[in-house]
Design a protein that fits this description.
Blueprint (H helix, E strand, L loop, with lengths): L4 E2 L1 E4 L3 H12 L4 E4 L15 E2 L11 H17 L4 E9 L7 H13 L10 E4 L15 E10 L1 H14 L3 E3 L2 E9 L2 E8 L4 E6 L2 E3 L5 H9 L7 E12 L7 E5 L5 E7 L3 E5 L3 E2 L11 H12 L11 E12 L13 E6 L6 E6 L5 H16 L22 H11 L5 H11 L3 H5 L11 E3 L2 E2 H10 L5 H8 L10 H15 L5 H4 L6
Parallel strand pairs: 1-11, 2-3, 2-12, 3-8, 5-14, 12-20
Antiparallel strand pairs: 4-7, 5-7, 6-7, 9-10, 10-11, 13-16, 13-17, 13-18, 14-15, 15-16, 19-20, 21-22
Helix pairs in contact: 1-4, 1-7, 8-9
């Protein structure tokens, strides 16, 4: 380690850990982020893919959380317009559920809890005339529409880690912290790589952003206790062939007082979710069960004319939400807010993150680094609210204008491929494709629509090590490819690593200057 002492060791490569690493690195702190698996491999790639205030949380009087999330919605729409965009939600009115006056009141509050610049307000719909009414059963005559946002959740994590790296942070994936001990004003930590090799690192502070493993890390690795804890709640989703042709999403009220979303997904599909189920197993092994599949199909079938069953499910995903345990009676009502616990009792600071949601990650990170900076005697100002994420500086007022400009600059790229590049990499398309002037310049087509140049970029710049990292987290190409595609890509990546190594953990352990 050449005597390097990091200011901050962040344990956990989900959205909170990546956000904290980015914020800290941007304030001039030396940062090391370690993640035992791939970035966003667990909770942060298993969300409903929404940047939203959380309309339903108003029923639980979570006004502060909703206001904070709505404020952050505006910030994130500006910071990453390539991977985050506006989405209009349609709520068909079910007379047996919440009355119309209550919904109108809730939507009015939702529109006015925070300043709204980018999104249109709510409105009442005649579903017999509106395009969103066509896929629904004939009984739904009236409805409501309001605005929120969608996000490529795993890419949001990667871009935060990428920005942290470009600001000097060392980012180590597939590297687990297996031991951490205070030695007065320093932490001595043991990191174990996927192959079994271990290294010792020193840090002035430690951030426990392990998500579902935050309690386990405290108890088994750090050897500390806390008055706070997380409540593990499983959220599952199903993906089916497209159920409607328009660009709106749906929010459905259900007899059990829960809501589910039906969202346009990857052009050809509809994403339906989520469930809320108490979970007590290994978060790394979470899977959807048959009851959840049936539940989501049944809730979809209450509203859509086109009926679906388990046999229509193309793909599924599940994640464990590490919610702050507030002793709520049921999983659906557990708060989505967060708390930060700073422990400086025995010397070097330890900050643990309990709870949170993807929409408020940037604010959480800002508050976390504020607390750490004070303990470390650093007085750098906050900065992330007005700075775009990598690729987010589009130089055009809208994504559509940016895409039109990209078509002029790269007329040889097929539109579907160009659109995917624009949505994934934004202003950094040119970095991804290099000096290519035609499709041949992108190298061989490893899989349909996936060329060598992009795979090399994802390996070299975005920490992709396995096919699953690329096909499910850096993209959603897996949904569009035939069986066996993952094995083909794994073989290509293994051969490329053997002939031209991307770099070892030892290389990444040398922090760049901030």
């Amino acid at each position: 380690m050449n005597g390097q002492i990091y200011d901050v060791l962040v344990i956990g490569g989900g959205i909170n850990g990546a956000g904290i690493a980015r914020d800290a690195a941007g304030r001039g702190l030396s940062v090391l982020l370690c993640e035992k698996d791939d970035l966003a491999q667990h909770t942060s790639s298993a969300s409903t893919k929404l940047i939203h205030g959380g309309l339903r949380y108003l029923e639980y009087y979570e006004f502060g959380l909703v206001r904070k999330a709505l404020q952050e919605r505006e910030v994130l729409l500006k910071a990453a317009p390539h991977i985050i965009g506006p989405l209009r939600f349609v709520m068909p009115h079910d007379a047996s559920q919440r009355p119309q006056w209550m919904i109108r009141a809730g939507l009015f509050l939702y529109d006015h809890l925070a300043k709204r610049e980018l999104l249109p307000g709510a409105e009442t719909l005649n579903l017999e005339r509106h395009p969103a009414g066509l896929p629904l059963k004939p009984g739904f005559k009236r409805g409501f529409a309001y605005s929120d946002g969608w996000v490529q959740d795993a890419r949001l994590v990667v871009l935060n880690a990428q920005d942290a790296s470009e600001r000097g942070a060392a980012v180590l994936t597939r590297t687990e912290c297996v031991f951490a001990q205070r030695e007065r004003e320093l932490w001595r930590c043991t990191l174990r790589e996927e192959g079994g090799a271990t290294r010792t690192v020193l840090a002035r502070s430690v951030v426990n952003a392990a998500g579902p493993w935050v309690d386990t890390l405290l108890k088994n690795v750090i050897g500390r206790s806390s008055s706070k804890s997380v409540r593990l709640v499983k959220g599952s989703h199903i993906i089916v062939r497209r159920l409607f042709d328009h660009s709106n999403a749906y929010i459905f009220q259900n007899p059990d007082k829960r809501i589910i979303f039906a969202i346009p997904y990857e052009n050809d599909f509809t994403l339906i979710g989520t469930t809320d189920v108490e979970y007590r197993g290994d978060p790394a092994q979470v899977r959807i069960d048959d009851d959840e599949v049936r539940y989501l199909c049944e809730m979809s079938n209450r509203y859509f004319a086109k009926q679906i069953g388990p046999e229509d499910v193309v793909s599924t995903f599940s994640g464990v939400r590490p919610l702050l345990d507030d002793e709520s009676a049921n999983a659906a009502s557990v708060t989505r807010d967060y708390t930060l616990e700073l422990d400086t009792v025995d010397g070097a600071p330890l900050l643990s993150v309990f709870g949170g949601k993807i929409t408020t990650y940037r604010k959480l990170a800002e508050q976390a680094v504020d607390q750490l900076a004070k303990s470390l005697g650093v007085h750098s100002p906050t900065w992330t609210a007005g700075v775009p994420l990598p690729g987010g500086d589009l130089a055009q007022p809208t994504f559509e204008a940016f895409l039109a400009d990209a078509r002029q600059r790269y007329p040889w790229l097929p539109l579907p491929l160009l659109t995917r590049y624009a949505r994934s990499y934004g202003s950094r398309i040119g970095i991804v494709i290099g000096e290519a002037m035609d499709l041949a310049g992108l190298g061989g087509e490893v899989l349909p629509g996936l060329y060598e140049t992009e795979v090399r970029y994802l390996m070299d710049v975005e920490w992709a090590r396995k096919a699953e990292d690329i096909l499910w987290r850096r993209s959603k190409l897996k949904l569009h490819l035939p069986a066996g595609a993952e094995a083909v890509l794994d073989r290509w990546m293994a051969a490329r690593s053997a002939s031209a190594p991307v770099g070892s953990s030892a290389d990444l352990f040398e922090p760049r200057s901030a």
